[in-house]
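User: Can you predict the 3D structure for this chain?
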Amino acid sequence: MILYIFMESFESIIQSYLDNKDVFLVFPSDVAARYISRKILRTSVRRVIPQERFLIWDRFKERVLVYQTSRRPVNSYIRALFSARFLHTNSTAPFLEELVSPNFVSHSTNLINVIKQNLPLLHRVHDLVKKRKKTISSKKIADIQALYGSYQQFLAENNLFEPLYEEPVFSDDGNSYVIFFPEIILDFNSVLPVLQNQNSISFVGIDRFTGQKNLITGYDNTSQEIRQMMNTIHHLLNNGIHYDEIVITVARHDFFLPYLEREAYCLDIPLNVHIGTPLISLPGVSFFKQIERVVSSGFACDELKRLVYNKSMSWQNRDVLEKLVRFGISYHCVRNYHDGNRFIDIWEYNFKKILKVNDQYKELSGQYVLLRNMMQNIVLAGNFSDLLDAVEKYISVIVDRSACAETVKNNLRLAVTILQEYQRQYNRLSSCEVFSPFSLWMSMLQEKMYVPQFTTPGIAVYPYRVSAGINAACHFVVNADAAGTMLNTSNYPLLSPAESASIPNAETNFADDYLRLYLSIGDHVMISYARTTYTSAALPPAFFIEQGHIQNMHMPVDGAGRTLTEIEKEVWSSLQNKNTDSVFSIQKTGLEYAADTVFSVNTADYTEAPILHDQAARRIKGLLFHEDEIISISFTDFELYYNCPFRYFLKKLLQLDPMEWMINMFDNRWYGILVHRIFHRFFSEYEENNSPYPGRDRQFLTRHLEDIIEKVLNSWAFLDSIPPLPVWEYIVKKIVEGFQSFLHTEIETQKEYTILGSEKKYETELIQKRVIVHGVLDLVFEDETGIGIIDFKTKNAPEKKAFGLPDISPEACQIPFYTMLLEQTGVSVSSASYYSFLNKKYIEVLSRLKKAEKDRALLDTAIVFVKDAVREMAERLYSCDFSIKKEKEPGCRFCTFRFVCRNKYYIKN
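Assistant: Here is the predicted structure, written as structure tokens:
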């Protein structure tokens, strides 16, 4: 029998037990326990509150639940050690078939955390699968039985037990306990049978409090939601509400928190953010992850540079380390690599070369060897003792601890303490090999959260879940959409959704219970969400939808919701002076002056008229035209001019570099070059060997393409500058996936044919021999239907509807241009296609089928259009005319030269 307490209010329950020292109050989280005790102290006449009587659930279990065994309970460290051993055994001699696919067995150690987190509930799944052999695959059952059996053996060998596998008994210590809000305690039901008949245990459920109306406010977007909340808080503080009485809870805080902090800073509202950060990301700890990247990248110069220039760390010989980085840049030490069976240390290779003629680099060479060996000793340590020694040596030799900030030293000590705990737990095991202790340490540093303890005053900000149950005077729960408040836990882990579908109570959903608790406890609780967030659209939680308690808020364009910054931004962006009462007059004057003068300079504007200056015109014609006034036009020239004549002038003749607000870590042009280089290498071998292309030979083509991809990517990584390693790995992954899809499409759609040209240049004469048109065609082939051409696009390719007159897009002119080019040389084109690398499909412009007369008619119309456009281009270039035609209105907003072009369209748009 569960004894529930019925009283008028939450505070009255707390107050009623404070005089009885034998009663302990149990809360789901430490945040709720501490906040409630402090508020009671602030609002009551009591001068002392016994903090030890406010317990959290885990501490309560330690006090009253006893396991009748002499064995030790396992912990997170020990589960990780078992998981690493289990997965390593599987990687060397695979026996799992579904939990870890045989195709990924070499990478299975990446699943350590997955296995570790599911071990506590593994006994449930093991008991279940024996009863449901028809609904769960036999391979999955075998995998679960192997894992469970291995874990049980490991526990027995090391005299350990898993608490959730055992039935505890209640130990009456003479005290009474009141457990608050058991509905949101994850493992409450597993211990309920032990607690429910105890006279010393009582429960306070969520439903005991009526709270306020179950209402959620929906805003148009996240900016409005944050702004309205901060304006309300600003009003509360100005009217005497103490910051201790206000609490903010943020669901999905990862992307929301920076905008919240920025708005608070603008309104001078102090915040105390009690949201944990993984230890691995803290200053003084994160550099260990950088060390791992340096070693795993083959001591790539880029990765070493990031480590050395880590601003949070102080190095003993920073000047020497920076010289080492500059040496790596100067001598192209991209990374160490393998050439067949031979290992090449590119750093030592360069040092040996230069030391033959100049011994001033001897100290630098020694510093590299020392740094490399110490880093390898850390990352490749075979046991925790060696790892601890290597870490302490690195800290004492490389790190200047005396110059580090106090927080950095504290974080570093915390990381080393966790490593020492790993070593201590491992040493207590009687039977367990250890694999990659460094990876286990990094995994624990990623798992452990550090929550800053602030001493300065401010409004407390908590992540969702941990603040449930606190009785704040004003509690704002923001970003509380359906995704942010969804709290499902699987009672049978390792099963797929399809396998869990037929199992009763396979999942426990805590979403509604948490929302009911937030709404019930506290004087004023305001829950809100935004219909459009910074990342996507959002819906309110089902809890509110079912009750119809949704209040949609549409903020007015003018009014209290807008800040001075927004008003000013609107004025400057729209070039209007409406609704500017809050903008200073000097800003209005400056705006008007800018609008009247900046875009009305009295100099030649070549976006409006041809270049008439004789000397300038002669020089331009000298660059564009050959002798006898013959001009050569490639498709790239044509597309550039057709898009924007003035951009053609800037890029082709003035050779200006594009100007952007920021430079990407990876240039998209490199991606296109890599993809086209692989296509060229793949097809050119058939052209060079004069052998037919085997369009349906899957095994041969797969092997051939994989070899080409590996050669091209390795060559690029060695000879060219690659982006940061994670970006490079992502690009390599996308390229490999893209070509796998290409090969699948190729085998299904193409047959055997002969390659006539891969990346082959063709040229011909047009318009009475005054114009030479040329282009490099990606692929020209011949099959039973005749000559075909294919153009490879890394992104989208134009569909057939793009060829309709009068507005043919520049991209759609490529196939008509190349068809015209070939047919001017006497070659009849029977098929023409694009292949979109992004969309993984062929787009036929001219089909091989007999019913392709419509395609041919449409293509011929486009060819006539291209010829006329080439003729017009030649004539305008001869007149030095680079003006932008009014009727076109090009997409100037995205032009990389928009900052030097005075085209009026960008301003008007």
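The CA atoms of residues 766 and 772 lie 6 Å apart. The radius of gyration is 35 Å.
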